[in-house]
């Protein structure tokens, strides 16, 4: 049964053709019976048969050519009025084409079908009035014959509206699906950028400290073994710290693992800047650190951003400042913001690193700074100092920490 239903759905013209043949048989049988009771004879058949065939054709092709079949049906209705062909079973095609055009046809065809349907009954009553009927009775007949056409048009138009509504829902669902896919891609890209920034900050800072200490240990290995031993201890401690932060990052990538296990260190914040400064001093970089204003709790995103900016700025000083460079760090608490000022008196970074964002894989630290600050709605100014060296100034807006 299901296969038969699917077959009929795939071939609607066959179904319409079947009902057209049924309507033709009923019309011929009715016409033959009427001819036996009429004196018109062959002339009557010559008028009714072509019109009946064409009205049945309207049924057969109503879904394939709805507008054309509507015009054909209206024309046959007019021919009936002109040729004095009374109402016949084939006129049922007028009702069917009205429904079809209202549901599937164009707007002009739907309006034409409604107009023709509303005029059909009054014109037929005027052309073939009922004998011995009062005016009220004739009006009642007209209303009774008009209602099926009005209902057919209303049902067809309702079906059109329902289809349009479902099509709109499908379009909206498809659009939302595309938007979800786009948002997922953006989220993945943002997460990859965040992980890249974290990896860069962790690796660049700690590895630069280890490289500096390793070079110093190699230089004084024979002449000052105690200094070389101290440098190796700093390398060991820095490496362990780097491993701890790397494991924390890997834990973040594993859903829930960083929450269920206390093995991973927490996100760094401004309170850990003292440890960072001491680490830099221990690696041979003089750093002057001051806090201005009244320290208070900060949003976690601002805390991490401030720590990473200072960390990256000091890393750049070690990389590009030269052997005798010194740095200063200022942390300023404003009423509505947190200010950061990191300066050094070295030779400064190459021009392309801060102006063009880096070439040949370089300069990602400043790019990461701008991305971090942009995520919290802050501003960044990076460039050479007028008296030599390099300066990084940042302002991070604050919101009450809950």
Plain-language structure description:
It comes from Streptomyces dioscori. It is an enzyme of class 2 (transferase). By secondary structure, the chain is α+β, with helices and mostly antiparallel strands. Among the domains are: 2-128, no CATH class; 282-402, Heat Shock Protein 90 (2-Layer Sandwich). Helices cover 68% and strands 9% of the residues. The protein has 13 helices and 5 strands. It has a 5-stranded mixed sheet, with helices on one face. Helix 5 runs antiparallel to helix 6 and helix 11 runs antiparallel to helix 13 (364-375). The chain starts with a helix and ends in a 5-residue tail after the last strand. The model is unreliable at 255-265 and 356-362 (pLDDT under 50).
Query: What integer value in Å does the Rg equal?
Result: 44 Å
Whole-number mean pLDDT = 80
Structural class: alpha+beta
The overall strand count is 5
Distance between the termini: 65 Å
Question: What percent of residues are in strands?
Answer: 5-15%
Principal-axis shape equals rod-shaped
Helix content: 55-70%
Total DSSP helices? 13
Topology as a string of helices (H) and strands (E): HHHHHHHHHHEHEEHHEE
Strand order in space, largest sheet:
1-2-3-5-4
Q: Major beta sheet, specifics?
A: 5 strands, mixed
Point out poorly predicted stretches: 255-265, 356-362
